[in-house]
Structures are given as C-alpha cells and as structure tokens.
Design goal:
seven-stranded mixed sheet; globular; alpha/beta; 468 residues; 16 strands; nine-stranded mixed sheet; binds 6-O-phosphono-beta-D-glucopyranose; single chain
Length: 468
C-alpha cells in the first residue's frame, strides 16, 4: 500500500541528523513501500526544490562514503509545506496536499505523522490534527476527495510517531495522553525511545533469555549491583533552548536509561511479541520505588558542566542539570535490595553507554558488561590463575565485539528500525502509555525535590560529579 510520511519539524536537527538519512537507508535497502512520499512541514521557508536539496545534504553528511544510487528517484518523492504549527491553515494545506496525492494514486494511502518537534509543541499539533481531520484517513467530503466508495473502504492506516520526553512530569504526560487518546487508538500511537531500537539494546533480551548460563544467577542472590551509564563527550550543541527546558533527567533518564533498566531486570516474556514484552517492561517500571524527599537527598546527585551557562546568553542563570546520578531500587522479589545506579552526563571524558552487572564476590567479583555503544559488545571479567609457580589470581576478560563480525559492517541505525517497525505496525520497540506513566511516576518526585538540592559544577571532559 502507498505510504505517506508527514514530518512536522522537517527542517530541524532530528530530521536532518537522523530521520532523512534513515529514510534513505531504508530506501536503498528496498525496505520502503514501492509508493512512498514524504511531506516536510515546518516554519522554515523551503520550496519542494530547496527541501530536496536540504535532504540530499543531510544524507551526504551522514553517509559520505556510502552509495547514493537512486538518490534522484528518492528525492523526487519529497515535498514541502511551509507553515506555522499554531496556524490551522498549515494543516488544511497538508490535508489538501495529501488528498491530491491520494487522488493521483487512486488509493487512500497509509499516513504516518512524525512529530520531530520539541515536546512543548505536541499539544498544539494534536489539536490541529483533530481540527483539520488529518487524523482520519482520507478526510473530507467524498466529492472533494474524489475517491470511490470502493477505494475508501480499503483505506490505509493512520499512525502517529512522537518523540520523548512525552510531557514534563506525570501530570502533563497524562493530560497529553488524554488529548492524544481522543485522536488515535493505542495501536496507532508509536512513542519513540530510539534506544529500544538500537541493535545492542535489543540484544540485552536475546542474551539474557537465550543463554542458560546467566539465567539462574540473574537475581539478588548473586548480583550485588547494576550500573547503567550513558555518558556523552559532546555538549548540548545547537539545542540550548530545548535542553534548558528539559535537563538531563527528562532528556535521557525518564526514557533511555529507565528502558535499559527495564530490559536488564524484566522477567522472560516467554514469546517475542510486542504485548508480552511491553507487559514485562511495564512491570519493572511500576516496581520502581518512588523516593521520599529525604531519599532524594541521599540517593541522587545533579550537576552542570562549568561552561554551560556561558554557552548561550539565555543560559546565564541556568540551574538545569547536565549530569545526574541516582540509586534506584525495585520492589520485586527477584531484585529486592539490589541498587541500580543510573548515571548520565554531557561533556564527559568519553562517550559510552553500558550496563554493568557486578556479581557478588565469592572471593572476587565477576563483572558482566553489556556495551551499547561505541565498541558494541559483551564482556565478562573472570578470574584465572596467574601463570607461574604461585597460586595468585588475576582478572581476565572474555569478550565479544560486534565489529569483529561481518554483519557489523552495517548495523542498522536506530531510526531506520523505528521507521521500519512503524510501517509494519510492530510496536515492540515503542513505549506504551502505561510505561510512560510509570517512568514519570518514578522521576517526578525527584524533579520536584531537586529545586531544594545543590547543583554541583563539574569540569568538562571529566567523570562528572564525584560526590554523592
Ligand atoms: C537523545 C537526547 O534522545 O539521545 C540527546 O535528546 C542525546 O540529548 C541522544 O544526545 C543520545 O542518543 P545517541 O543515539 O546518540 O546515543
């Protein structure tokens, strides 16, 4: 079935860096429907021609060494509608363009609306999608649409993709959900957490549930603590206003890090199927112990890199965190008393995302590292006898690196997976309404009490805030 992507925020950072290149990668791998079209919508004054040029540049930047075969055919499917998200007229123009496209094709095509915009714009876009009728397939009086009853009876799907963070806290997330729920059913809503779509994140489940070796020891009896770290050497780039409004905990804590925790701690879903997996992830997120104010003081720390306030005039008095560390506990029998130490920061000494499992020391501790990026792989520290006459032990490492395998030549980008799964209607790697609510329930009390806690400064290129 023909499929149309409508990207709100098409001239923005996310579209440029991730979405447009990912669409091209899917295209050259023959993973897009034969008839697909992309309508970019944003305030920027592009024409179809200049939007195609922008798209081409974005692809070249991302994939300078790869083939650009088929690029002309690809770009010819791109169109642009310039307009303000507050203005209902913008959406009317989108609706008209989609109707014209469908008429030309003689079908009522599938439509995917991608909100690549700051979360503060979601509400206005939801309202206007409803007002313009865009949330209903092939909207408009039949005469105007010009499609036969037969074609309309075979109308394609309509889906919406939204980025994280969804809301600012539990209350705002629930309000937004209520609005979104009026327009789309849960099976039409694709809440993106692109970490779930990373190859190595998906491998956490496969690794855990396909290797009998680790299953019996995956609990409080054998595991001392779990550390989940998401460090970035880079800063906030050009996203000062987005970041200042959001901060590190909302940006990556409420979503990416908690999802890594859920995958590390969840029970075996039995089958690889969206509902089953989402249900098990949800159980873990709902089992997170919500901190009391005094626990917030004891178990969390927030920091800001020293030059943050000098990066943009709007940041000069900022109290926004660019670093956090939390110790979380789960109220489940399997994990009772096991600390999950969650840490993230910008401008750190290196970029790395990993989950580290520290086993309880018998004499010495074993450590299992699930490395998400870079140098994706898995390693175990174990103990061996030092060669020679003594009985001394020394740590050794067993490791598997994706880059040593042939398939690693081209691991699909997370956004390719996001778009591909949305087209197929597979929601496994997307977060459910309940998962979003459960994570906000854990995060919101921390955010509320942070106003009264100290914001530590840390040096760029360091390990962040050392104290706790
Ligand atoms: C995004 C955050 O969700 O994830 C960014 O908004 C962060 O601040 C990014 O840099 C990290 O993603 P990745 O895929 O580059 O690790």
């Amino acid at each position: 079935m023909a499929t149309i992507f409508v990207i709100f925020g098409a001239s923005g950072d996310l579209a440029e860096r991730k979405l447009l290149p990912a669409l091209f990668d899917l295209f050259r791998k023959d993973l897009l429907p034969e008839d697909f079209f992309v309508y970019g919508v944003s305030r920027h004054e592009y024409t179809d021609k200049s939007f195609r040029k922008f798209t081409h540049e974005a692809i070249k930047r991302k994939q300078s060494s790869r083939t650009s075969k088929g690029i002309a055919d690809f770009l010819n499917r791109f169109f642009y509608i310039s307009g303000n998200f507050e203005d209902p007229e913008t959406y009317m123009r989108v609706a008209e363009a989609l109707i014209a496209q469908d008429k030309q094709l003689g079908v009522c095509s599938n439509k995917a609306f991608y909100l690549a915009v700051p979360p503060s714009r979601y509400e206005i876009i939801f309202e206007n999608l409803a007002y313009s009728g865009l949330s209903i397939p092939c909207v408009g009086p039949r005469e105007k649409v010009g499609l036969s009853a037969e074609v309309l009876a075979k109308a394609g799907w309509t889906r919406i993709l939204v980025e994280k963070p969804f809301g600012r806290d539990l209350e705002t997330a629930q309000k937004l959900d209520a609005k979104l729920g009026l327009l789309f059913k849960e099976h039409q809503i694709f809440r993106i957490d692109h970490y779930l779509a990373k190859e190595t994140v998906q491998n956490i489940l496969t690794f855990r549930f396909s290797n009998v070796l680790f299953q019996p020891v995956w609990n409080k009896n054998f595991i001392e603590r779990v550390e989940i770290t998401l460090w970035e050497a880079g800063g906030i780039g050009h996203r000062a206003s987005f970041y200042e409004d959001v901060g590190a905990l909302r940006d990556v804590g409420q979503n990416h890090i908690l999802q890594l925790l859920a995958l590390t701690a969840m029970d075996d879903p039995g089958i690889i199927e969206a509902d089953a997996i989402r249900k098990e992830r949800l159980k873990i997120l709902q089992a997170l112990h919500c901190m009391e104010p005094k626990e917030v003081l004891l178990r969390t720390v927030r920091g800001q890199y020293e030059s943050y306030t000098k990066e943009h005039h709007s940041l000069s008095a900022s109290q926004t965190e660019t670093f956090f560390r939390l110790t979380a506990f789960l109220k489940t029998e399997r994990w009772e008393g096991v600390p999950f130490i969650l840490e993230s920061g910008k401008k750190m000494e290196e970029t790395k995302t990993e989950v580290k499992i520290f086993f309880k020391p018998a004499k010495h501790s074993n450590i299992l590292t699930l490395r998400i990026q870079p140098d994706e792989g898995i390693s175990v520290v174990f103990w061996a006898k030092k060669p020679g006459f003594s009985q001394e032990l020394e740590p050794r490492r067993l490791s598997f690196l994706y880059k040593d395998t042939i398939e690693a030549l081209e691991l699909p980008d997370a956004y390719e997976r996001v778009l591909y799964d949305c087209i197929r209607g597979d929601q496994t790697l997307f977060t459910s309404t309940n998962e979003v609510a459960a994570s906000w329930k854990f995060i919101t009390p921390i955010l509320e009490h942070w106003d009264t806690t100290r914001l530590y400064l840390y040096k760029e290129g360091s390990i962040g805030v050392a104290t706790n």
